[in-house]
Amino acid sequence: MLPADLTRSATALAAAVRARRVTARTAADHYLGRIAAHDDAVRAFLHVDPAVVRAQADALDARIARGDTAGALLGVPVAIKDNLCTTGQPTTCASKILADYRPPYDAHVVERIRAEGGVILGKTNLDEFAMGASTENSGVAASRNPHDLKRVPGGSSGGSAAAVAAGLAPLALGSDTGGSVRQPAALCGIVGHRPTYGALSRHGLIAFASSLDQVGPMALNLEDCTLLMAVIAGHDSRDSTSRPGGFDAAAARRDDALSGLRIGVPAEYHSDALDPEVRAAVRQLEDLAVGAGARLVPLSMPLTPYAIPTYYLVVTSEASSNLARFDGIRYGPRDEQQELAASYATTRRRFGDEVKRRIMLGTYALSAGYYDAYYKKALQVRARIGEEFARAFARCDVLLGPTTPTPAFPLGEKSDDPVQMYLCDVFTAPAPLAGLPALSMPCGKSKAGLPIGAQLQGPTGADARLFAVARALERRLALDLSPLEAPRGA
Amino acid sequence: MELEPTIGLEVHCQLATRSKLFCRCPADFGGLPNSRTCPVCTAQPGTLPVLNQRALELALAAGHALRCTIRETIKFDRKNYFYPDLPKGYQISQFDQPLCEWGELEFEAEKGRSKVAKIRRIHLEEDAGKALHPDGLACSLVDLNRAGVPLIEIVGMPDLASPSEASAYLQALRRTLRFAGVSECDMEKGSLRCDANVSVRPKGQPELGTKVEVKNINSFRNVERALMFEIARQSEVVARGEKVVQETRSFRDSEGTTVSMRRKEDAHDYRYFPDPDLPLFDVGRARIDAARAALPEGFAARRRRYQGDWGLSEYDARVLTEEPAIAGFFDATVAAGLAPKAAANWIQGEVLAFLGETRGEFEQLRIAPAALHALVRMEEQGELSHQAAKKVLRRMLETGDSAAAAAQALDLVQIRDSGALAGTIDAVLAAEAKIVGDYKGGKETALNALLGRAMKATKGKGDPNLIKQLLLEKLGKPGG
């Protein structure tokens, strides 16, 4: 067992392994034990191979025994969303069409974690191909929110968020296309960051909507999130959309970020649809910031409601093309028929309903005669949304608002109504359309004990500043950010 | 009603890069099936394309060689369709913003009449793999070695008026691209592929007739065959009073006919859209200009130079510009110091004859331009007779020996030592007293007979001029 202080902080765990206070193997066994004890209830993981995990930890301990203690994540297990390629473990996107697929290579971010002494703990559940906001679209099973097992953990990176919140992993990677890191982070009471588009390499991230997909770090607190972000950020020549330059971890740890900070508060983020408890928690955070020397800048961002229709046209169009490769010819199961077209059709029936729905929508939006009215129009609105953000950031440094309209909702509540599910993205979809960084942090709990998340958004490249602001707020909030001892509401 | 055809060609040509367009796999022809593949070109989930900069340079070279307007920003689009040889389910191509537009190609439409055809556009794209359907096998096989190989598609305007013009255009296009170093343009290896758009209309009618696209024209010979058949077929349709159907047809080599593949209403909707994995890329004025500056001299310019500056015949100039390797070798030989006419004669005569006999490629030539020059200098300096020089060159071509080494090996270096020849001549004069008598009697031609005897006595190695001079010294004037 790990000492309690090490289960609250991945940063402390790495330091303890480096100082040889604990072994990498002890840390790995601790989390494997937690998974064995609690994951039947949480269902955060799709694949965990204890032998593979222990082998990584033992190799690290052997290296440490030789005196080599290099690595920012030395001995720290990291859970990986199952749409990121890993050698030695399956990568399935929670889809039956990729059942048992084993990639021949590691994603860039996975390479980085291994290079810094991290241990790949296992692959976490998601909505199939990251399409959803609850993990209920997983082709395997829905994950549960460890704060209330009858509720969703959010999605699509719900497995990663639930794993961190339940203490099944100290750190996790998710991916965020329209909110898939931030929304589950908010619903599970952890920190999740969506980087500036291109700040992290997408090499090895199985594409859903290429122009919006970004890998994102998830952690219990800002310090741990900074640690992971610093490891995985940076340029990669294998991704043509990768940006030069890395993540300024020192700037992310500055403690004077609130002084003189101009915080934009768009009226549209506080519409009537917002849950009163969420509103109250965000207002309290605003007050805290003002008390620490920040200034609130009231704004209007009237294009906010257009983000969702725009987002769903862009992502479905790109997805219809990105998912064409799952044809059963080169990998994945194949349902062979006499005719080629029939083989394709039968094989692709393995996609779940939501994936099929999006492929059909996107195929339609790109087809001759409809392209101008849908896809092209969406690109035009997308550009306007970017301009609206630019105008806002001329007047403020960051935007503050709720991450989600409500705390975690019960399993099954929205799963038969795709439009209700799409509306979960109302606050998280705009930033990806503009390629902007956005971070969700815990800012309180509802009376029912459900976590509430606040979202900070910044201009392009302002990732480190968002971290610094969030860090200052986190300190003043002084919430208990420990992982749950056991899942609740069984 | 007299009908006239209108033809435009769409030519795909494989760029002469070492690696594929969006990954680092080798791009050359052949190899065991699927041996030249990686996660990117087999479309493993999560992989991303990165543009091969050399391919871009070669596409720019093609644009300059065909006098196109070149875009400073490069944009790639996805062309979506399903087929087992297309790993991603889409081909990365360029749709609405091709790299090059509005160029032209001058070609010899018929002997002595040149014509300029307009190029509509040139765009960069990746090739698909190959689906194989072996006889006796219940399944198809897919080879992805070719998947991702860089291509340019050169779309010509419908400016060609006959099958022979189309063939001449294609030959000129091929030669232009080969001289620009853009592509091997080898139809047998598939590095040059040609589709034709063809229609017929009443002579003098300004509007074009209904267009039919003919695919699978896989050799130069078939360009004319396919077009002649298709024009005749369309003309018959019109003659019967029917309408030509807009469709895509496939050429059948064995029968020399075209058969319908798909009609307009069955045409694919490729759902082109900008590839989000490849952001707009600024090529830059400087790079475009550098590609122009680096463009090798074209074959037409070389012909003009060979005829105008160096006084070669049109025929010589044409033969020497048949292939870039020949022209390059010729220029290098002249640069090494050999007179253009002499260089032209040797290359056209012996060198090309040798390659013809041995079915060799000029690229595999075993001698350097300087070696050819050294050989000719040996002849000029009298060390080799002309006949001997030809034999020596042959050996050089076969073995890669230097001129001196080959001459030595063949024992063909001329004897130019008067002391060494004097004895031989004395012996000949002694043995051929009758001929000597004839000469002394005034028969001038007898000297040639003596020269022949002396040459034979030296096994052909004696320098004939020197022998003649020595004979004259010994015999004096005829009749004297």
Give the gist of this structure:
Chain A is built from 17 helices and 11 strands.
Low-confidence parts of chain A, pLDDT < 50 over ≥5 residues?
A: none
Could you please say which CATH topology of the domain at 4-248 in chain A applies here? Amidase signature (AS) enzymes
Beta strand % of chain B = 15-25%
Helix content of chain A: 25-40%
Radius of gyration of chain B: 31 Å
Terminal Cα separation of chain A, in Å? 24 Å
The structural class of chain A is alpha/beta
CATH architecture of the domain at 4-248 in chain A: Alpha-Beta Complex
Rounded average pLDDT of chain A = 96
Number of domains of chain B: 3
CATH superfamily of the domain at 4-248 in chain A: Amidase signature (AS) domain
Uncertain residue ranges of chain B: none
Determine the number of helices of chain A (DSSP H or I, runs of at least 4 residues). 17
Instruction: Name the beta content range of chain A.
Output: 5-15%
Strand order of the largest sheet of chain B: 2-6-7-10-1-11-12-13-14
